[in-house]
Amino acid sequence: MESSQVKNKRVLFVCNSTGSRLWRTMPVARYLKRYGYQTVLVPAKEMKMEMIADFDLIVLQMVFDRRLIKEIKKQKKKYIFEMDDLLTWVPKDHYAHKEIKQSGWEWRLAVWNAIRKADAITTTNKHLARYYRFLRPIKNNIHVLPNYIDEQFWLKDHKKNLTDTIRIGYVGGMSHVEDLKTIVNPLKRILKEFPNTRFIQMGTGGWSSDDDEYTEFNYGDDVFKQLPRNQRTYYHGASMMVYPDKLYALQLDIGIAPLIENRFTKSKTPIKWMEYALNRTPSVCQEFLYKDVVKHGENGYLATTEDDYYKYLKLLVKDKSARLKIGERAYWDTVSNYVFSKHGEKWRRVYDKILNS
Hints:
The chain is α/β, with parallel strands linked by helices. It folds into 2 domains: 3-148 and 339-356, Rossmann fold; 152-337, 3-Layer(aba) Sandwich (Rossmann fold), CATH 3.40.50. The chain contains 16 helices and 12 strands. It is globular and about 65 Å long. α12 crosses α15 (320-337).
């Protein structure tokens, strides 16, 4: 249905505190505004019930407050439940596992309530869509809208490494500690074999200060303690608003995206390859998640085992021309196929349909 037929186009995005808003709400709100929508973003903790009356559609981005949903329904407003993660089940090593376990069924029931009462669901891949269909078999208004790069936010000037040291990097959050353990041995071999390499790490899993019990108490286990201290650098994570700038500033020559395959990681999307690609950084990525975007040997490499990671990291370390060629291909593939402006119409059609239903 064409957007010209939409009577009211006032949309409120209620966002959670994670970086998902960079992919799931900010680019959507910006895109819709170009087509006559009134769009407002508000953090969940600042949401006030009286705001509901001013909007025709509420988008709850992984926000499942029962009181809020009850008030939305009371005022006969429509809401979309937007979710890009599997929150009702996380691995035992995940930082949120203890919180979910302690909350018992309360957490799950709140999520299920949000899913079942929503006028529509938007999510990122077929695994999450299948999960939602199971939870709301009667209402099958579920839309798979993959993640795309918000070019206005992400595209920066290329920061090239001008030193003789080859910088191999990983960037990620607290949920990836166990994933990082799978690349310790490959990195150990690479750093030993090539003294001109350095491991650059930002986010979680290690630190850069001297080892002692107080440092470990503050930052947690150092996943990479086996790596030579003089060949690794750790940077603290950045807030979501400056994260792209800090990622570019790392000046990585090679990126790594390891994952342990399970129900939770299957619900992820291949954004790490895109993030590396934007700075023309070739990467070695876990096959099960990245196989749909990474063309092996052309715009990146796919790995399954530790030996795979070692093999393809070694190839990129030894061959500068391969690094440059693959990094360049990854960049152009990303800006040609995975920028939001080329796919925003998918969101507009979904929102128009819901507003007119």
